[in-house]
Design a protein that fits this description.
The structure is a single chain. The protein has 1 helix and 11 strands, in the order βββββββββββα. It has 193 residues and is mainly beta. Strand 5 and strand 6 form a beta hairpin. It is globular and about 55 Å long. The two termini are 33 Å apart. The model has no long low-confidence stretch (mean pLDDT 87).
Length: 193
């Protein structure tokens, strides 16, 4: 399974996105991959650059024979016309059940970073040259994923505690009928009381 949450916004220019998580746990499997990601997705679809998904992953890879790797890593997925390429960088052993995933872009460079538990220090996992194109709408994503290679139930638990998005500029989708949306939100708010 692959589940994601995305704030309803589009990010432009330089940005800094930080996602704080806690209580990360999973059910042991024989083989596969489980964990959480912070991802950003650029909208550049030119042939020379292509659309780019940058991710910071904290999780576990389980190989047959019970070889388990608790880790953190950066992932860069490039989608170009007729071509897909995925690369993994900065893989390091990591066992913390809490921390902060961070992706920042300054000019033509994107940085993938991780801080364990409540540490104020971020570790740079990867730096890459990218275009300065905006992120797609919903292009900041908090993801939970489990890739199971054998039959069995996958279970993953995490508490997303905070998402911070700072950018030169952010835009939202236009709302067709703002009054109708406000009325629906008011009804929902009253049910929560």
């Amino acid at each position: 399974f692959d589940t994601w949450l995305a704030p309803r916004l589009r990010v432009h220019g330089d940005f800094d996105v930080v996602a704080e998580f806690d209580g990360l746990s999973w059910k042991d499997l024989d083989t596969g991959c489980q964990g959480v990601n912070l991802a950003v997705i650029t909208e550049d679809i030119s042939e020379d650059v292509g659309k780019i998904h940058c991710r910071v992953f904290r999780g576990v890879h389980l190989a047959s024979g019970n070889v388990t790797s608790d880790l953190v890593q950066a992932q860069v997925h490039r989608f170009q016309t007729g071509n897909y390429r995925a690369r993994v960088y900065g893989t390091a052993a990591e066992e913390s059940a809490s921390g902060r995933l961070r992706i920042a872009r300054r000019g033509d460079r994107i940085y993938c970073l991780f801080a364990q538990q409540d540490s104020p220090q971020f570790r740079v996992l990867h730096e890459e040259v990218v275009s300065d194109s905006s992120l797609v709408m919903d292009g900041v994503r908090l993801m939970s994923q489990a890739i199971v290679e054998t039959a069995g139930d996958a279970e993953l638990a995490v508490v997303w505690k905070r998402l911070s998005v700072r950018a030169e500029r952010m835009t939202d989708r236009p709302v067709a009928n703002p009054q109708q949306l406000i009325a629906a939100l008011d009804r929902h708010r009253l049910r929560l009381r």
